[in-house]
Sequence to fold (305 residues):
Amino acid sequence: MEKTSNRAVRFPPKKILAALDLSEASLPAWEEAKQLAKEFGAKVEGIYVQPWIYSGLKAGMPSSTATARASSEALEALRARLGLSADVGVVPGEVEETILSWGKDLGFDLIVMGTHGRTGFQRAIQGSVAETIVYHSVIPVLIVRGRPAPIKSVLVPVNFESYAMAGLQAAGYVAQAFKARLTALHVLDAALADDLDAIKEAKSRLAAALARLAPPVRRAARPAMRLGFGRADEQIVSAGEDSDLIVMAAHRKGFLNDTVLGTTVERVMRHSTKPVLAIPPGLAARRPENGLPARLHHQKAALAR
Fold:
């Protein structure tokens, strides 16, 4: 069953959770979260989840002493890597469950995390923490790989389903917040590459979808259209190479398809070199107050005092 939420996407975010581990893969996530926080006047907090360490003396029982010692060592390592002023905490527990509950219950608007990019047999056996978070999160999740770069162009896939249209609305507000160019991509079957009627219809529907974006969004994001032909995930990854950020609605297809093939957003996460922002199902896009970036709200509030 799909998890849904009645919360709205708040972008620019006001409170960002950076999910960290002790690997190099989590450093870009921390840097990206800090850059977003600086850009939008948001608060960023880091969390490292220390898995329970189980005692050999009591089968199936976690050792509080060993777990506490490992947590202390982890915090020391994070401070050495991120700086003593970093707002980072270490929490014992199950990794995915703890990150998800913190993001949902403590008022965060966005989770930022890196991915190790496991493939093949290793992924089948171990899975991916990032993919699990994306699959179950009720707030947006930004997956980064590599050093963060300025966001000047945003790609959003649109297949005309209701969840994708909600993703388009969210992507519009993301592009507006970044003052980035928005490109909407629709992927057709490869067999339709020479079908002029199908191409004309797709362009017409895509133009109609973009026309439903709020006027301030259209003015700021200057939306463009793009068509692809072939497998959706492959076309999205290819088109994403020309963009700085991919925004996707995280749609669940069903247990069998998800287990064997993974969702489209998960496959894009595995192969794209660009950041991927996953918008959970059931999450509505909410326009920023008066359409103003966060830093202008701060100025407006200061003048009103």
Summary: The radius of gyration is 20 Å. The CA atoms of residues 156 and 184 lie 5 Å apart. The first strand starts at residue 8 and ends at 10. Residues 1-5, 119-127, 254-261, 289-305 have pLDDT under 50 and may be disordered.
